[in-house]
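Our preliminary data section would be incomplete without showing what the modeling component actually yields. Below, a chain of 51 amino acids is followed by its predicted structure, encoded as tokens that our downstream tools consume directly.
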Amino acid sequence: MERTPHTLRKDLVENRRKNDIVLITAGSTENHGDHTISGFDTIMVARICEA
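Predicted structure:
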């Protein structure tokens, strides 16, 4: 289920009940230099879990 700002909470709860696997994302906020954004590791982990 794709989450958007318009996704209803009841739909999220219903979808969560259908799935018994929970992924908890974790990442650091270390600076990799001026060429990447802060929180890059956390964003990448979240994208991997969404896939």
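Residues 21 and 49 are 11 Å apart (CA to CA). The first helix runs from residue 9 to 18. Preliminary results of this kind motivate Aim 1 of the renewal.
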